[in-house]
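hiii so um. not sure if this is the right channel but i have a protein structure encoded as tokens and i wanna go backwards to a sequence. like what aa goes where. can anyone help
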């Protein structure tokens, strides 16, 4: 009778073990349903959680940061495009004014003066581009949109005859402040100086300039190299010794400074730098004693055109600081119109070399208005190599060349039409450049969004629970658990019944044995 009881005990143990497994499975399914995750601890999938929580999650975060970078960069290009379109409107208006001013027949001097006032106002509005910035984080972070100081290479072409001792001393005195001011404004400034004197006395004919040094105008004085600190520049300017007089010709020296000094080689000018030549002299362009203000221009139009074309070809803006006395009443000073013509047509200007130092401040302020191309760096992806560098131009009167637009005479207005057209072409290139940049950023954004989606899907495959499977598992384990409870209940009831039967049988057996013993003790008949 003991064998059935043993079998029922083994069955109950197995039922309890099965119910325990079902309870664990139900608990796991419920956890996955409540969290939505298949892997809730490292024990669920050690290698899977290492991959998903390590490599995948890290890359997802970096991709997301790159996407945010690209979205901000696209906003930047949109703002730049708006600024370029606004600048275009100003340039178009400037062209309208210049064309109208060129119609000499119907205009008075007062009319032209009013038109020049409008031109000046348009240039002032363009100059305000330097204040347009892209601000983030409550204005804590700003980025220029249309203006960047950039690299600036300045070459001083210095008349070193005896009467120039005081102006040279003024350059030396002003150099430290000029360097500190421009550097503080963000310029990467380099300056150099070359000295010139009488030259070989050859007539000015830039059309026939051969390679090398045609005039022998430049002396051995001066740095002939660009330096990035005021101390070195002051030493170089100081080395320009003051010599005797002679037939010094500033345009000769300017051309020779380009050819003989070699601003790209010997003077190590930077390819993307803004280039400025400053001619400092107290003699007229050919030193014949005839100045433009009193007797007309000294040089021929072809000669001036050659100088202008050469300066423009090198991207050099030409400024002159000059004052001449020949041809004027005693004590009167004037500016040579050859210099004015050439400087204006290269986007520069001509200013008076006075007895004080007002011209020094003017030069410093003029240089501060410059702005050059600069590189934009966009980190668009998760890896260190995932970045885009793009060069954009500064949109300012100095870079457009409109700062030299003059409509005070019909002739000047006619000449200014070509200058304004060049500005429109420059602006058109900038618009195309910015549009191309935006398209590149948009393509990168789409690529990063696609990678993010795929990477998120891979992570999801490793970590996320399949709700349909988990619901099925939970339902199945619930049914098995209910069945286990019913089976266990039935088994326990059966075990109790068998125990009762076994107890009864044992009682009856004991009773039978007693009866047999009693009968055995009775006497036999």
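sure thing!! here u go:
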């Amino acid at each position: 009778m003991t064998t059935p009881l043993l079998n029922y005990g083994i069955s109950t143990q197995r039922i309890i073990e099965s119910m325990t497994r079902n309870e664990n499975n139900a608990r796991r399914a419920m956890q996955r349903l409540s969290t939505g995750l298949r892997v809730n601890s490292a024990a669920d999938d050690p290698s899977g959680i290492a991959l998903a929580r390590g490599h995948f999650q890290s890359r997802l975060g970096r991709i997301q940061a790159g996407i945010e970078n690209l979205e901000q960069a696209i906003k930047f290009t949109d703002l730049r495009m708006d600024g370029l379109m606004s600048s275009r409107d100003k340039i178009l208006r400037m062209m309208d004014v210049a064309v109208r001013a060129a119609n000499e027949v119907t205009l008075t001097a007062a009319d032209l003066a009013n038109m020049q006032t409008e031109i000046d106002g348009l240039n002032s509005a363009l100059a305000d581009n330097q204040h347009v910035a892209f601000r983030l984080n409550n204005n804590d972070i700003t980025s220029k949109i249309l203006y960047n100081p950039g690299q600036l290479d300045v070459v001083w072409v210095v008349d070193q005859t005896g009467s120039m001792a005081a102006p040279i001393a003024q350059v030396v005195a002003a150099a430290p402040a000029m360097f500190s001011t421009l550097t503080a404004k963000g310029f990467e400034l380099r300056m150099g100086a070359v000295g010139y004197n009488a030259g070989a006395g050859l007539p000015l004919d830039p059309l026939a300039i051969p390679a090398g040094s045609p005039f022998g105008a430049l002396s051995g004085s001066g740095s002939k190299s660009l330096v990035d600190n005021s101390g070195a520049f002051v030493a170089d300017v100081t080395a320009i010794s003051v010599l005797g007089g002679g037939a010094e010709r500033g345009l000769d020296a300017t051309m020779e400074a380009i050819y003989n000094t070699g601003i790209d080689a010997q003077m190590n000018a930077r390819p993307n730098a803004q280039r400025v030549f400053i001619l400092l002299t107290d003699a007229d362009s050919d030193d014949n004693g005839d100045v433009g203000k009193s007797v007309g221009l000294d040089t021929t139009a072809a000669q001036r055109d050659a100088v202008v074309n050469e300066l423009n070809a090198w991207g050099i803006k030409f400024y002159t600081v000059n004052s001449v006395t020949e041809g004027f009443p005693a004590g009167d000073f004037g500016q040579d119109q050859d210099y004015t013509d050439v400087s204006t047509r290269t986007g520069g200007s001509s200013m008076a070399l006075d007895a004080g130092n007002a011209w020094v401040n003017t030069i410093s302020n003029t240089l501060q208005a410059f702005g050059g191309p600069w590189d934009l760096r966009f980190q668009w992806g998760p890896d260190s190599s995932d970045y885009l560098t793009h060069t954009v131009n500064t949109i300012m009167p100095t870079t457009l060349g409109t700062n030299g637009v003059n409509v005070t005479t019909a002739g000047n207005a006619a000449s200014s039409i070509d200058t304004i057209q060049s500005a429109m072409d420059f602006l058109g290139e900038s618009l195309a450049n910015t549009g191309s940049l935006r398209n590149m950023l948009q393509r990168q954004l789409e690529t990063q969004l696609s990678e993010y989606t795929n990477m998120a899907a891979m992570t999801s495959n490793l970590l996320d629970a399949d709700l349909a499977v988990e619901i099925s598992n939970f339902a199945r384990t619930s049914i098995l658990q209910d069945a286990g409870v019913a089976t266990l209940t039935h088994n326990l009831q059966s075990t109790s019944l068998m125990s009762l039967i076994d107890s009864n049988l044992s009682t009856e057996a004991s009773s039978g044995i007693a009866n047999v013993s009693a009968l055995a003790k009775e006497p036999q008949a």
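oh and Strands lie at 133-136, 141-144, 151-159, 188-196, 218-222, 274-281, 316-322, 350-352, 374-379, 387-392.
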